[in-house]
Structure formats: structure tokens, C-alpha cells
Backbone:
């Protein structure tokens, strides 16, 4: 029997905290926010029913990683469940286990699934087991410098070094020759150690300018799994997504179906539960390869919501309450009942200076006006006139999302919205986004992951 939550703690900040609080409110659930000393004046905390400062003077990031303090607060406030958002504790199996021990439901997959899929090497091994193609490489951590030299001798360059625990493009290095190999390996180890506390690095072939295609998954706790189709997230800078859209208009029907089938195959095999994303790269020969599973809500979930009409965050909560996908509450009767209508594009407006190597800008927003209107959804963070953009956190200011019946009009709408935005006091990447949206390749959905690097004129 499903158990309705009365109170949910949102263990995150910024736009995703607001997104989760809104979903809870619509489901009649009381919300408890947490915030760091540095976030004392942040908008998200005012949206929750209750908000508590955590972390003391531990630091702006560490506050949101205070596992024991968050769980103690949740117990004290009689919370039924915790939503982790993305980043921070969202993919931390230890946190999931501690929630379970405290009899608090973690809104996401269970710790075993995270153990299995959170590590890029383990998930590649699992994908191979289920017949899902992966990029050829060494499926274990590189032991030492001799081993990587040996691998490079037997395999052609370019190669890609990647952190097993990787995320956010960290611990990744492209290697094009023997001369770069050892230094890149050392750099990748160092970066991974700093970012993730472990320096397990693996190696695979580097694909030249592939497309990044990913599949949104929803699985209930009764073994039912569906996909909400794909997203094209190829517009990236330094392996970080900037513009995302769905459907991936340049994919053939055949390729799309193969990728969707493989995503389901892997998630069914792994016994996946709750929302997740299966990521693939598609090379210029139209081969697709699995790269990783993200066992959490993603920044770009919005575009899938716009075309399917399914609220993914509400679904996450209802799944955690124990509802079946085909229950009247979630109302996804079957895979075939999920229809894709129209096109949706998301632009990540960030407080970064595109004319100066995307250096994050901070300070007071003297003026903040967004461009809404028909077909536009704005998922904002801490943007309002007078708000302070802090240097400690992700520079995402607002997600501008369009929906329309045609791709061309979805481009026009999101472009109009970004152009209409007026932000003063802090620099944003708006001019860069406008250049991307005006590019002929983008309008045809043809961009690959090399697009930004190969078009320096976008920065002007
Ligand atoms: P992270 O978890 O750090 O985001 P991913 O494994 O998801 O890292 O990869 C991020 C991006 O890096 C991909 O979307 C792609 O652009 C690039 N990438 C990753 N692996 C390869 C590869 N083997 N060849 C070419 N590009 C790659």
C-alpha cells in the first residue's frame, strides 16, 4: 500500500530546490528547506513552509553535504522523505543508507542501484552484460603508468581518460599522442582525487565530435519501467551541457528506437527504480555507445516534461510513496500511452562572461527582468532585482525553456525570451546563447559536441 508523505525535506538549494518545493506543494506535501549561512537571503528558502540553517560555519558547500546533521534535522522535524535534487548528496549511497536506517524515504533509487550504476566502470560492465554497446577501452581502473603506456601502444590515439567516479566533466582528459599521455594521466588522477576523493581512472577510445543523446527513465517500485524518450544535449562547453532539446531531430527513427530499447534493457536488467537518465554518444558513423547512468533528476528534465506532459518530479515523489506507474496518481498506463507532442528547448542562462572565457561573475543583481509569454517556462534560482549572486555555487541563473508545435518556432520562442531578458549588475552568457540559437546548424538540430569549440565566433 502506498504511504502518502506529509512532510518532505529538500536537501538542496537554488532552482532545483524551488522545482521540488513546487512539486510537493502541488501534491499537498509540506516542505522543509535547509540553507547554508551563505544562503541566508536566498530565494528558495522563502518558498518552503519551513527553513532551517545547517552546517554552522562549515562552509558554503560543506553545509549541504552534512549528512548527519541533515538526517538529525529530518528526524526532529518529523519528515517522511528527503528529495536530494541533483549534485550535493544526490548520488551518495552512504546518504541513502543513512536515510534508510533513520526510516526516512530517500526519493531516488536505492543504495544498491547507486553502487552498481554510480561508478562509470561498473555501469559499463553491466551494460556489456546486457548487450548494450559501450566505447572500447579498459574496463578497470588503470593501475600505474606502465599499464596506460601498454594500452596506448596497442590502441590508436585519440584516447579518453575518465574518472570512474566522474561528474561535471571533471577528471577527464583527451590524449592525442604519446607526448601527452603521462602528464594527462597524472592530471586526471589529481583532478579526480580533489573532486571525488578517489583517483580511479579508466581509459577508452575518444570519439571525435559525437552527439550526446540521453534517455529519461521512470521506474516504479513494482518492476515497471518506461522511458520518456530522448534529449539531445550535444551543445556542450568543456563537457558541460548548455542547450538541450527534445526530440533529437537529427536522429533517424531507427537509431532513436535502438537507443531507447538499449536504455530500457539496461534499466530493466539493473532493476532500476525512480527517475534516471541513460546517456549515450552517437558517432559520425551512426553507432551509439552507452556512457553512463545518472541516478537522479537532471537539470534538463524540463524539456521531457514539456513534450510528454508528465511531471517528472511529482512522479519521483509518487514512486517513492509506493505508487505504480499505472496508478491514477501517476497515470502512465503503458509505454505506448506516452505521447510526444511538439518540441522543447532549454537554455541554461548562467552568470558567466562569454567574452572572458566564461569566468563566473558575482555580486548584486541591480536589475532582473525575464522574458515570459506563450510557450515559455522559466525555472529560476536566486534571480530577482536586488539579489546577491554568490561565488560559491553553480552559476545557473535561470533555465529558459520553450515549447512549440514545430522545432523552428520553439527556437524562435526561446530566442525571443533570452533576448527579452534584462540583467544588470552581473554578467550573463545571454549573448552567447543568442549566437548559438541563431546558428544555422542549431536550427537544423545538427550540432555535435564539437560545435562550440569549432565555432569561436559564438563568443562575440
Ligand atoms: P560527466 O559524468 O563528467 O558529465 P560523461 O561521461 O557524462 O561525464 O561525459 C560528458 C561528456 O564528455 C559527453 O557528453 C561527451 O561530450 C564527452 N565524452 C565522454 N566520453 C567521451 C568519449 N569517449 N569520446 C568523446 N567524448 C566523450
Residues:
Amino acid at each position: 500500500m502506498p504511504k502518502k508523505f506529509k512532510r518532505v525535506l529538500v536537501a538542496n538549494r537554488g532552482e532545483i530546490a524551488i522545482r521540488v518545493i513546487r512539486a510537493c506543494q502541488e501534491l499537498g506535501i509540506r516542505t522543509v528547506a535547509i540553507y547554508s549561512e551563505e544562503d541566508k537571503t536566498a530565494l528558495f528558502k522563502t518558498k518552503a513552509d519551513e527553513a532551517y540553517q545547517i552546517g554552522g560555519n562549515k562552509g558554503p558547500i560543506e553545509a549541504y553535504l552534512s549528512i548527519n546533521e541533515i538526517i538529525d534535522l529530518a528526524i526532529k522535524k518529523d519528515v517522511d522523505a528527503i528529495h536530494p535534487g541533483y549534485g550535493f548528496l544526490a548520488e551518495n549511497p552512504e546518504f541513502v543508507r543513512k536515510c534508510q536506517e533513520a526510516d526516512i524515504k530517500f526519493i531516488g533509487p536505492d543504495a544498491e542501484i547507486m553502487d552498481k550504476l554510480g561508478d562509470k566502470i561498473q555501469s559499463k560492465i553491466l551494460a556489456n552484460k546486457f548487450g548494450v554497446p559501450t566505447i572500447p577501452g579498459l574496463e578497470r581502473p588503470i593501475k600505474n603508468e606502465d599499464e596506460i603506456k601498454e594500452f596506448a601502444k596497442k590502441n590508436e590515439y585519440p584516447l579518453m581518460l575518465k574518472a570512474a567516479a566522474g561528474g561535471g566533466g571533471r577528471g577527464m582528459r583527451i590524449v592525442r599522442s604519446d607526448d601527452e599521455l603521462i602528464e594527462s594521466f597524472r592530471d586526471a588522477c589529481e583532478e579526480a582525487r580533489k573532486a571525488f576523493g578517489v583517483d580511479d581512472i579508466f581509459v577508452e577510445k575518444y570519439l571525435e565530435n559525437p552527439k550526446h543523446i540521453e534517455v529519461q527513465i521512470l521506474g516504479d517500485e513494482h518492476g515497471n519501467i518506461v522511458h520518456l524518450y530522448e534529449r539531445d544535449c550535444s551543445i556542450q562547453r568543456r563537457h558541460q551541457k548548455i542547450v538541450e532539446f527534445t526530440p533529437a531531430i537529427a536522429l533517424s527513427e531507427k537509431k532513436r528506437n535502438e537507443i531507447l530499447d538499449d536504455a530500457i534493457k539496461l534499466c530493466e536488467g539493473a532493476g532500476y527504480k525512480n527517475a534516471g537518465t541513460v546517456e549515450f554518444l552517437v558517432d559520425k558513423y551512426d553507432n551509439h555507445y552507452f556512457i553512463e547512468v545518472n541516478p537522479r533528476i537532471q537539470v534538463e528534465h524540463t524539456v521531457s516534461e514539456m513534450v510528454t506532459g508528465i511531471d517528472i518530479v511529482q512522479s519521483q515523489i509518487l514512486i517513492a510513496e509506493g505508487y505504480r506507474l499505472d496508478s491514477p496518481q501517476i497515470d502512465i498506463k503503458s509505454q505506448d500511452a506516452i505521447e510526444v507532442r511538439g518540441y522543447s528547448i532549454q537554455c541554461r542562462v548562467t552568470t558567466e562572461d562569454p567574452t572572458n572565457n566564461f569566468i563566473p561573475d558575482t555580486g548584486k543583481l541591480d536589475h532582473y527582468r525575464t522574458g515570459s509569454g506563450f510557450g515559455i517556462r522559466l525555472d529560476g534560482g536566486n534571480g530577482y532585482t536586488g539579489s546577491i549572486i554568490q561565488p560559491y555555487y553553480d552559476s545557473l541563473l535561470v533555465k529558459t525553456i520553450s515549447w512549440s508545435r514545430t522545432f523552428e518556432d520553439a527556437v524562435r520562442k526561446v530566442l525571443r525570451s533570452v533576448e527579452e531578458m534584462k540583467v544588470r549588475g552581473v554578467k550573463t552568457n545571454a549573448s552567447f546563447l543568442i549566437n548559438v540559437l541563431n546558428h544555422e546548424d542549431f536550427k537544423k538540430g545538427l550540432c555535435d559536441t564539437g560545435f562550440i569549440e569549432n565555432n569561436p565566433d559564438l563568443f562575440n
Observations:
- Residues 135, 160, 166-169, 204, 206-207, 210, 212, 236, 239, 279, 281, 291-292, 449 surround adenosine-5'-diphosphate (CB under 6 Å).
- The longest helix spans residues 178-196.
- The CA atoms of residues 12 and 87 lie 8 Å apart.
